[in-house]
Write a structure and sequence with these properties.
It contains 17 helices and 22 strands. The strands form six sheets. A seven-stranded mixed beta sheet has the order 8-7-18-19-20-17-21. Strands 12-3-2-16-22 form a five-stranded parallel beta sheet, with helices on one face. Helix 1 runs parallel beside helix 10, helix 1 packs parallel to helix 16 and helix 3 packs antiparallel against helix 4.
């Protein structure tokens, strides 16, 4: 007799594991099928050079929801995050530098070297950002109102809008600014120093194939500040053991609850029976029969590759064709014989434990995007370097180090028919040259490297267009419209199909929120009230 499951989840990334946890905890029989030979999706720790391990894709912690950490009891499984002593360190083109973080007063003191006005403006800027970030934190763990959901839509919209409606008029203006304006327009209204604006503007282009001048880029800035580390809002940190330590802990939790995880089990297509999702067929030919199919892969991959012709309505397919992907991201991991020596601050220090940002001005970031559109990648790319081995000796041999290089802007598809497989080496050299210009000797210290172009990210992690967010974080693809109006409540276009990945609200980053929220909708649909009002 064929074994039947209450739910089959496509993809063992962190959101799939979180979703499985809540379903299994409620008594459902769950199976996860994963195409790779390791759980974790893009949140994995792997050896990329003999003796050197790193978080090879997702690389830092802030957005993982405290409720998920508590509910899954991840600390009992070894979850440990070390906060950065300062947030970011930005070498400047004139040979100076700016440090961001370490507390309000310390950041103000740093800003005064650039602008007294900016130092004085900082408390009000933080306050305005924090009020809006609190709204996002409140919404992150809630299902968006779903257009077409009847009375439940009206009730959800009223309840979720209550906190926003309760803000003062000035704060409501801040919300509008952050959701619609460009990062430059927003930051120009607060600050005068180009270095200070760059320190905040960098967050607006992380995983965002756009210029800081692009309308809506201010929201991406906000998306990266609504997290917390160890109870400290807006902080970022390193997971001891890398990001894979988090997902391995999650996997231990869910398997203890009876969840079955099948590795090297790629899905060929979603099975339908009478127009309802009925399971999945694996590339191996095995059919996994389940009452519900829950997708942790991005919407583009799911709907373009995992359905037979005729399974989906033509209008849905047309609109999904317009779903925008491509984060402009290029990832490198490098094994180093020594710490980089920055011309502006050569000795070892707290700046080596921060996000090292090579993007000194908003104009620099804008030019990087212009170059990428014209040529395929930036002549001077935006680079964030993290060196986690300073505080985590499990990642590199004694006295040596690993560094993550998170880089923007790199076109998802190269112009003129060029192929990333042939060009990625040249792009990697450009990135290394960019770091070398600020830290002479960096190139000579490289013992080995891993290079992941947008195409490489798609191939390795099944990210359409190499998009680390599973889809652009633009206003037309947020909240109830992620991935599409009418399907913003984690339910797909066929009965029994759900979406629990970053292509759903609240979007990209290692949050666990889509997994949590999707599970709540699955469980609601099983209940009497869910069937009546859902």
């Amino acid at each position: 007799m064929t074994k039947k499951y209450d739910a089959v989840i496509i993809g063992a990334g962190h959101n799939g594991l979180v979703c499985a946890f809540y379903l299994a905890q409620a008594g459902l029989k769950v199976r996860i099928v994963e195409r790779r030979d390791i759980v974790g999706g893009a949140a994995v720790t792997e050896e990329f050079h003999p003796g050197f391990r790193n978080s090879v894709a997702s690389y830092t912690v802030s957005l993982l929801q405290p409720q998920v950490i508590r509910d899954m009891k991840l600390e009992a499984e070894g979850y440990r995050v070390i906060e950065r002593p300062i947030s970011n360190f930005l070498p400047q083109e004139d040979g100076g530098y700016l440090k961001l973080g370490g507390g309000l007063e310390r950041t103000q003191e740093e800003f005064r070297r650039f602008s007294k006005h900016d130092a004085d403006a900082l408390p009000d800027y933080y306050d305005s950002l924090e009020v809006v970030a609190d709204v996002l934190r409140d919404l992150a763990m809630k299902t968006p109102p779903n257009l077409g959901g009847g009375i439940k839509t009206l009730i959800d919209a009223a309840l979720q809008g209550r906190k926003l409606a309760g803000l003062s008029l000035e704060r409501q203006r801040d919300v509008l600014d952050l959701f619609t304006k460009s990062a430059r327009t927003l930051l120009d209204s607060w600050f005068e120093s180009e270095a200070v604006k760059a320190a905040f503007g960098f967050d607006a282009v992380v995983g965002n194939y756009a210029s800081p001048d692009t309308p809506g880029s201010a929201y991406v800035l906000l998306h990266h500040v609504f997290g917390e580390v160890n109870g400290k809002k807006g902080a970022w940190g390193h997971s001891i053991g890398g990001m894979g330590a988090i997902t391995q802990a999650m996997a231990r939790v869910v398997t203890a609850l009876g969840v079955e995880i099948s590795l090297e089990a790629p899905v060929a297509r979603v099975l339908l029976n009478g127009g309802k999702a009925a399971g999945v067929k694996l590339v191996s030919g095995e059919e996994v029969i389940a009452d519900r199919v829950i997708s942790n892969v991005g919407p583009k991959i799911l709907y373009d590759q995992m359905f037979d012709e005729g399974d989906l309505a033509p209008e849905f397919k047309r609109r999904m064709k317009g779903f925008k992907v491509g984060s402009g991201t290029f990832r490198m991991n490098v094994a180093l014989s020594e710490l980089p020596k920055f011309t502006c601050l050569p000795e070892p220090g707290e700046h080596h434990q921060s996000g090292i940002i090579i993007a000194p001005t908003l104009d620099y970031m804008d030019q990087a995007f212009i170059d990428a559109k014209a040529y395929g990648w930036s002549k001077k790319p935006i680079v964030e370097m993290l060196i986690p081995s300073i505080i985590d000796d499990s990642l590199a041999p004694p006295g040596q180090h690993v560094a993550s290089l998170f880089c923007q802007q790199f076109a998802p598809v190269l112009p003129d028919g060029r192929d990333w497989d042939a060009e990625e080496g040249k792009a990697a050299d450009t990135i290394i040259d960019t770091v070398e210009a600020h830290a002479p000797g960096f190139r000579a210290s490289i013992l080995g490297q891993q290079v992941l172009s947008p195409k490489g990210l798609e191939r390795k992690f099944n990210l359409a267009g190499g998009d680390i967010m599973h889809g652009n974080m633009s206003l037309d693809q947020l909240w109830s419209a992620r991935p599409m109006l009418g399907h913003g409540a984690y339910r797909g276009p066929v009965d029994g199909l759900y979406m629990c990945g970053a292509g759903s609200h609240p979007g990209g980053g290692v949050t666990g929120a889509p997994g949590h929220n999707c599970a709540q909708e699955v469980l609601a649909d099983r209940s009497f009230f869910g069937r009546i009002f859902g």
